[in-house]
Design brief:
Subcellular location: Cytoplasm
EC number: 2.1.1.193
InterPro entries: Alpha/beta_knot_MTases, PUA-like_sf, RsmE, RsmE_MTase_dom, tRNA_m1G_MTases_N
Function: Specifically methylates the N3 position of the uracil ring of uridine 1498 (m3U1498) in 16S rRNA. Acts on the fully assembled 30S ribosomal subunit.
CATH topology of the largest domain: Alpha/beta knot
Shape: elongated
Pfam families: Methyltrans_RNA
Oligomer: single chain
């Protein structure tokens, strides 16, 4: 039986009545078509779902009562941190990586100021995509979207003892070579044009392991999906 889900970004207590925000009303009335008495699941970035009942539905107001909560942990045992160079299909990368169980996403920006400004403007849109992907995939913990940064700053921010991977079709290592004990992995995915030599060299200086996803050249969004899937198969819950 299909039960609608919505995200509520505040703490929730049993037997309390909550009022949904204005930006959720259109979705609730016109998309999932809530009616008085309907049951809905609410998630709020915890490993619980809150089973709720609709009390009031109006054009400017929706009230629901929190009836009970239950544990619902769907998080992967491996924490994958994605450093993704911003691409034209960044929204697809974000959506699919959330569905596959990503833990954290950091948009990597180019050196150009125009690119940086455009990237910061898209943050709100990307956060909406993350919430939507969590709603669809039944995830209750919302992956973190970091502030856009450069490849150099991102590499510098990672602990030296962490497992760090940069993908290269010429590499001899494969994801299956990574020891099973590692549960916290940082992966770096380039743009459509790939990494330049300075970026590759810098990542290697920061102890990023070169790993191959096969001999074929993948589009950037395909590379992200393939890498996360392979890691989940090898170390996670797929």
């Amino acid at each position: 039986m299909y039960i609608p889900r919505i995200y509520f970004n505040k703490s929730i207590k049993i037997n309390t009545v909550i009022k949904l925000k204005k930006n959720m009303i259109h979705f609730c009335i016109n998309v999932i078509r809530l009616r008085i008495g309907d049951i809905i699941h609410v998630f709020n970035n915890t490993n619980y779902i809150f089973i709720s009942k609709i009390l009031e539905v109006k054009k400017k107001n929706i009230l629901l009562k929190i009836v009970k909560k239950k544990i619902d942990d769907k998080e992967s045992p491996i924490k994958i941190h994605l450093g993704q160079c911003v691409s034209k299909r960044m929204s697809v990368t974000i959506e699919k990586s959330v569905e596959l169980g990503i833990h954290t996403i950091t948009p990597i920006i180019s050196k150009k100021k125009k690119s940086e400004k455009k990237t910061f403007k898209k943050i709100h849109h990307w956060k909406k995509i993350i919430i939507s992907a969590c709603t669809q995939s039944l995830r209750n913990i919302v992956p973190k979207l970091n502030t856009p940064t450069t490849i150099y700053q991102w590499c510098d921010s990672i602990n030296s003892t962490s497992t760090k991977i940069i993908f290269d079709p010429k590499a001899t290592n494969k994801i299956s070579n990574i020891p099973n004990k590692y549960k916290n992995v940082f992966i770096l995915i380039g743009s459509e044009k790939g990494f330049d030599e300075y970026e590759k060299k810098y990542a290697q200086e920061k102890n990023f392991l070169k790993v191959s996803l096969g001999p074929r050249i993948l589009r950037t969004e395909t590379a992200s999906i393939a890498a996360i899937t392979a890691l989940q198969v090898h170390l996670g819950d797929i």
